[in-house]
Amino acid sequence: IPSWLEDLKNKSTSDGEETEDTSLEHKSLCQKVSLFRGDITLLEIDAIVNAANSSLLGGGGVDGCIHRAAGACLFAECRTLIGCATGQAKITCGYNLPAKYVIHTVGPIARGHIDETTRDDLASCYKSSLKLAKENNVRSIAFPCISTGIYGFPNEPAADIALSIVKEWLKKNPDEMDRIIFCVFLEVDFKIYKKKMNELFVID
Ligand code: ADP
Questions:
Q1: Which of 109, 119, 127, 135 has its CA at 20 to 30 Å from residue 175's CA atom?
Q2: Structure pTM?
Q3: Alpha carbons 189 and 191: distance in angstroms, whole number
Q4: 136: closest CA among 98, 82, 166, 93?
Q5: Ligand 1 nearest-atom number relative to CA 39
Q6: pLDDT tens for residues 86-141?
Q7: Structure confidence by residue, pLDDT tens digits, 23-77
Q8: Per-residue b/e over 33-63, b at no fewer than 16 CB within 10 Å?
Q9: Residue 40 CA: which ligand 1 atom is closest?
Q10: Residues with Cβ < 8 Å from 75, sequence gap 6 or more?
Q11: Is the CB of 121 under 6 A from ligand 1?
């Protein structure tokens, strides 16, 4: 159990005034997150996040799926952006996608090995995407498992980073977002996210 959850439990038993606020805040936060297994390009939502590469000119994996579904206009807009640095994010229209926007973020290339830099860069992808979402009045957003495919970031620590950054951000920005979907594609990620979300976003 992560330390913040212990903190939450301790608070709700030690301070009457804070009990209600904390649990209400926690409850509304939990109600905003969900887990979906499937193709992110199908989601009718304000924004989907693309695990892009630094050229922003398309690639394999989720990036390829998004470009195929969005059509040639997405590629044309991406060309005007002149790339994106690792850990940063840029926004485009969604074109033929049911999503209004695509937020392109560039995850770290881990190749199975993670250190402080790759962890920070992955955290930065989630933070930058959420910041950009807020600036563009995005009220609902879906994240794929950034960097865990071709870029080789191990699945479990990647999920820890994704979930903790989103949780932290929602706590700081309770009025800025209605819905955050973790869109997993593989069975392995579905299992990892289900388990961790049951721990982190449980309402009791
Ligand atoms: P990266 O280069 O950042 O590792 P990948 O696209 O290779 O990006 O993989 C990121 C994640 O996206 C992986 O979990 C992969 O299974 C998943 N993925 C692939 N296609 C889709 C899709 N259509 N919708 C959602 N997730 C997808």
A1: 119
A2: 0.91
A3: 5
A4: 93
A5: 24
A6: 999 999 999 999 999 999 999 999 999 999 999 999 999 999 999 999 999 999 99
A7: 888 999 999 999 999 999 999 999 999 999 999 998 999 999 999 999 999 999 9
A8: bebbeeebbbbebbbbbbbbbeebebbebbb
A9: 24
A10: 57, 58, 67
A11: no
47 three-state secondary structure: strand
| Dist. CA 19 → ligand 1 center (Å) | 40
70 lines ligand 1 (CB under 6 A): no
Is residue 62 within 6 Å of ligand 1 at its C-beta? yes
Which is nearest to 114 in space by CA: 73, 155, 56? 155
Amino acid at site 127: K
Measured by CA distance, the residue closest to atom 21 of ligand 1 is: 62
